[in-house]
Write a structure and sequence with these properties.
about 1000 residues, mainly beta, twelve-stranded parallel beta sheet, eleven-stranded parallel beta sheet, about 0% helix, about 40% strand
């Protein structure tokens, strides 16, 4: 083929046009030729359209198009300035303040373009009158279906003759059959080539399930000048996502989910088998570049250039039920390879579209592509938000109306590897360089070099709703403005062995079963492993398609010195080595363990976690410079790790608090996908405490927090749970990595280890893994203390007593006492008294005490002290209660109803302070008040009493510091006379005043 093939309609192939009997049908460029398949028509005969000669027009007759090109450059449909003022939404469109809009000659040509989040919506105007703009239906209806993502005021107005005021703008007057253009300073319309595309589908390969089209290749052809007129219809372009449109007139958003319409391609393949696209150029296209539809299998897309395309560059597979849950395997889109392509300036008109998109597909490989200069996401894989996965999405009650299937979708074994992706998310938000949805067993994201992602990229690698079973490893990321990884309801996802200049990552919305560990943070792009960076993107034989700037430095650095190792932990090696030299400068080092890349750094030292105690490893180092030149490896060093194990693994553990399934045991279960969390809304500090089961000389701890940074903490060791000594104090500055290491050459003796999170940057204490290391202590003291004396019990309230006892003696000294209630351990103290709460009124209890020494030798139990708690005469019970405010269903009366399952709450979103007041009915002697708050900590409060409800005295002032327990007791030195009690919550850690019960008592 050679020359330009101008089409007036689609060039369509069917099964009859297939290659057969081992032969292929190949449409390819003749030697030295550059054939073009074009849907464009040239426009000539330009004449001045105004007296100033700034605008020209030409007769074009009865045509329609959404694009115009001058000398191969896309020009701009006439538009307003950005974010025009004076607009406000109405039920049918907009009200506006600019009266000139009322004079527009053809208002129904006008489109409102509105950018919001990941969408760029386009809605056509129906009419304009009296400063009101009525929008066409069903576009306006559909634009308001997704709550929270409705169309907003115009980002700009487009397609009116009256807006043509800037060089490079054009307008098609379909009523007069004329096209208007204001040329740029360097354009001469008498010599320029002006092209308008008129054909939507340039080439279609139309197979069927029973008669696929197969064994056809296209090589060395340019596909150019297509248009797409659907956005000009009354349905406009209201995206669900990725350029897929909501159409029709459904009653609500959920009803549209399985109906979104796919954007067509300039080249489309349906039920194609063994179709190849090699060395082609897709450019100047008005919709998708290359689109593979249902049942397309064994497609090879290699070495093509996709440049200046209105919507998605490459679109693989469909998103309908037949694609997700086909009844026939012939409907599956599978075995697609997208390799060594350039995708740039795609989605340049429909900005919510993608560079490369794969819907429901089986075994799609997207590798060694160069993807850049995009308004939104680079590569997107998957569909359905988990709703179409087996069992549906448990995050959404009722699965949002989508049927629940008992089989998995076709999505599996997608490989996104060795791509270079950069300069993305230039106008839209809530996307990433690599973005995924829903389950994809066997999915891999590996070897990609991602750089230049701005804050609207929520994660450079972004596993969104329902994403599952992805492995992320060996990726290199730099110049990442926000975070390198984001899991939003991402499950069973592994992210290990990645390299990034931005350590921040986050998980949310029930992102469970995932492991994010062993990732390396470096200081600059030039410190990333050159082996990943140099290998990503186009392979050498394809780099002519889009050459990078020429590299002039080819001098490799010298070989680094032989590394030496220190092994303070059984699972960690610290390596150091002598620096390399280079003619420009050494910028970084890569570290190899047994031949595998495991770390990178900008210095001459590195810490390597995740090793196995007792195992021998071989380490080598390479150096790199800014040009990516890599030295020869250093001489190897062999390191045998010391013996030892995690002393905290699966040991008994307690905590200050925990939330639902995030129990403290999950911090010591050895599973980096599970964690302890203190509980939503609770303030700092929080703590976990491990019983190692025996006494050790503890010399180190390794803590893996939930977040990548932002914690302050302290690790302490105790022989007896009472006397604590600091192992590591990290309370002065926030952590800067998810895993933090504490080691000392001065071990601390003890059996119990406590980690206290003193600061969490408002995230709350949350730990994936807490490891403790040390050596066993030799215990020589085996003499138990004497038995403590007979305890005495003093009732203070119906649910509160003080237990006291005579001291025991020991040959080395008694260090602690353990108190038992009815045979169950309830507390440890170094005093000879303990306050016991949470008892039931009018109930008999038995208390015994055991003495211990530092070696935890334990005495025999004391004699039992038996007591019956007083009856409950709560003076506030069922009395009249009022409050500063209340939320529905949480009236103040519920704080005095005697039911600890009901509560008063001040109301959602209301600020501190709040108050609760009880009328005791008459002047009464009050000696104690018990306040049971909703949360286990985080309140500041003041208790006051009054005889007249006007003049108040303080009963207790607890406004200086937060509560540390749910139930709080206040005692008067002598009983006070009160008719009214008032609880003022002066601080609630942002949770609002909320009280299960306020109780008042006289004497006992």
């Amino acid at each position: 083929m050679s020359g330009t093939y101008r089409l007036s309609h689609t060039f369509a192939l069917t099964a009859r046009d297939s290659g057969r009997d081992g032969h292929r049908i190949v449409y390819e460029a003749a030697p030295g030729a550059h054939p073009v398949i074009s849907g464009g028509e040239q426009v000539t005969g330009w004449v001045p359209a105004d007296g100033a000669g700034r605008v020209y027009k030409a007769k074009v007759g009865d045509i329609d198009t959404r694009q115009l090109y001058v000398n191969g450059e896309l020009e701009t449909r006439a538009r307003s300035g950005k974010n025009p003022s004076g607009f406000s939404k109405t039920s049918t469109g907009y009200a506006f303040t600019d009266p000139t809009l009322n004079t527009y000659k053809r208002p129904s040509d006008l489109e409102v373009v509105s950018s919001w989040g990941w969408k760029l919506m386009r809605c056509p105007v129906q009419s304009i009158a009296d400063n009101k703009m009525t929008m066409q239906q069903p576009c306006w209806h559909n634009a308001h279906l997704q709550q929270g993502q409705e169309i907003q005021n115009p980002t700009w107005l487009e397609n009116a003759r009256e807006l043509l005021d800037t060089p490079g703008e054009w307008y098609l007057d379909k009523g007069e059959g004329e096209i208007y253009y204001m040329p740029k300073a360097d354009q001469n319309l008498s010599t320029a080539t002006v092209t308008v595309p008129l054909v939507q589908d340039l080439v279609d390969l139309n197979g069927t399930r029973t008669d696929p089209v197969g064994n056809v290749s296209f090589r060395g052809i340019t596909f150019s000048y297509s248009t797409w007129l659907a956005p000009s219809s009354s349905e406009g372009l209201i995206e669900g996502q990725a350029g897929f449109r909501m159409v029709g007139n459904d009653p609500d958003f959920d009803a549209t989910r399985l109906k979104w319409q796919k954007t067509p391609g300039a080249v489309n393949v349906s039920y194609g088998h063994g179709i190849g696209f090699e060395g082609n150029t897709f450019t100047h296209l008005g919709a998708v570049g290359l689109n593979l539809n249902t049942g397309t299998q064994g497609t090879d897309i290699t070495g093509n250039v996709f440049r200046q395309i209105a919507a998605t560059g490459v679109q693989i597979g469909g998103v309908e039920v037949i694609d997700a849950h086909p009844d026939d395997p012939r409907d599956i889109t599978k075995d697609t390879q997208v390799a060594n392509n350039v995708v740039t300036k795609a989605a340049d008109q429909y900005n919510g579209s993608i560079g490369i998109l794969a819907g429901y597909t089986d075994h799609t490989t997207i590798t060694h592509n160069k993807v850049y200069d995009l308004p939104y996401t680079g590569i997107s894989v998957g569909w359905g938000w988990g709703l179409t996965d087996q069992g549906g999405d448990t995050n959404y009650p009722g699965n949002l109306g989508v049927p629940i299937w008992d089989t998995p979708t076709t999505s599996r074994d997608t490989e996104v590897t060795d791509n270079e992706i950069y300069d993305i998310m230039k106008s839209q938000a809530d996307g990433g360089a690599i973005y995924t949805l829903s389950s994809n067993p066997g999915g891999v994201v590996s070897g990609n070099y991602i750089h230049g992602t701005p804050p609207p990229a929520y994660g450079a690698i972004y596993h969104d709703e329902g994403s599952r079973y992805w492995t992320n490893t060996g990726n290199a990321l730099c110049d990442i403005a926000y975070q390198w990884l984001f899991l939003n309801h991402g499950m069973d996802i592994d992210a290990t062995g990645n390299f990034t200049t931005q350590p921040a990552f986050s998980t949310q919305a029930n992102s469970t079963g995932s492991t994010i560990s062993g990732n390396t943070t470096v200081g600059s792009c030039a410190q990333l492993p050159a082996s990943i960076v140099n290998n990503a993107g186009l392979q050498p034989s394809y780099r002519h398609l889009d050459p990078d700037p020429a590299v002039t430095d080819h001098q490799v650095p010298s070989r680094p010195g032989t590394p030496s190792a220190v092994t303070d932990f059984p699972t960690i090696a610290d390596l150091t080595w002598a620096a390399s030299t280079d003619d420009t400068a050494v910028t970084g080092y890569s570290v190899y363990r047994d031949g595998k890349l495991v770390s990178a750094t900008g210095s001459t030292s590195v810490r390597l976690p995740g090793l196995t105690a007792g195992q021998t490893y071989t380490f080598k180092i390479t150096a790199r410079d800014a040009a990516g030149n890599v030295s020869q490896p250093s001489q190897p060093v062999k390191v045998t790790m010391p013996s030892g194990s995690d002393l905290a693994l699966k040991k008994p553990i307690t905590a200050s608090s925990y939330s639902e399934d995030n129990t403290p045991a999950k911090a010591v279960d050895g599973d980096l996908s599970t964690r302890w969390a203190q509980g939503l809304g609770l303030p700092d500090p929080s703590w976990i405490q491990v019983d190692l089961g025996a006494s050790y000389d503890v010399n180190g701890a390794i803590t893996t927090f939930e977040k990548a940074s932002g914690y302050k903490y302290r690790v302490e060791v105790s022989p007896d749970e009472v006397h604590w000594k600091t192992l590591a104090d990290r309370t002065a500055a926030n952590t800067t990595a998810a895993t933090d290491y504490a080691h000392t050459d001065d071990p601390v003796a003890g059996r119990f280890v406590r980690l206290t999170v003193t600061g969490s940057s408002w995230n709350g204490g949350s730990i994936y893994d807490f490891q403790v290391y040390g050596t066993p202590r030799t215990v020589t003291d085996h003499t138990a203390p004497t038995t403590p004396g007979h305890p005495t019990v003093k009732p203070l309230l119906p649910g509160l007593v003080d237990v006291s006892w005579p001291a025991a003696t020991d040959d080395t000294g008694v260090t602690s006492y353990v108190v038992y209630q009815d045979g169950k351990r309830i507390g440890v103290t170094d005093a000879t008294t303990l306050r016991v709460s949470g008892l039931t009124a009018a109930t008999e209890y038995s208390f015994t005490v055991v003495a211990r020494d530092e070696a935890l030798n334990a005495s025999d139990p004391s004699q039992a002290a038996v007591v019956t708690t007083p009856a409950d005469h709560d003076l506030a019970l069922n009395r009249t209660a009022t409050a500063s405010s209340e939320s529905e269903g949480y009236a103040p009366a519920k704080a005095v109803d005697g039911d600890l399952s009901t509560r008063w709450a001040q109301g959602l979103g209301l600020p501190d302070p709040s108050w609760l007041q009880v009328d005791l009915g008459k002047d009464t002697a009050v000696s104690a008040v018990v306040t049971t708050f909703e949360l286990t900590s985080g309140y500041k409060y003041r208790l006051e009493y009054s005889t007249d409800g006007q003049n108040w005295s303080t009963f207790e002032d607890h406004t200086a510091e937060n509560t540390t327990a749910r139930t709080n007791y206040a005692f008067a030195d002598t009983p006070v006379t009160a008719r009214f009690l008032r609880l003022a919550v002066t601080g609630s850690s942002g949770n609002g005043g909320s009280v299960y019960e306020l109780q008042a008592y006289g004497g006992f």
